[in-house]
Write the structure tokens for this entry.
Amino acid sequence: MEPGADWRERITAWAVAFRDAIRRHPWVLQVPIVEPPLSPMQLEWMENGLRAFEETELTAADSLSAMLLVNIYVRGAGAISSNLTPEGSDANQLYVQRLNLLADPDRYPTIAGNLRSRPAEDFDVDYDADDFFFGLNTTLDGIEALITRRNAGRGSDV
């Protein structure tokens, strides 16, 4: 962990490292999870994830739940992105073309409206990277709200 980093920077670094590990070993997503982590490597990941929340007002149970929430997000994002075709302008444009053909406005009005209202270049993004950080930051915003509530509650006890 980076010295002087706050909880959000530490758990973000942990999440990125976990995502990168999944990219190197995508087969890990196929291994059923039938019990809590017990292997030395799993415990190392858990230890580092929990350390991210050490200097917060989260309880031990909250820290474990927050770490698990980020873990679930990273695994889910990894599972989805590992099955997609490689990113690139051509792949994105092909997807948009297919959506335009399939998204009948009567059956899928929201998709069709979204396609009509956005310029084609809006779809030229790296979904693996951009969507990963959108989802991670949204998840961390929720954890931050919990930390803020815990901090407010602490102030009222004094």
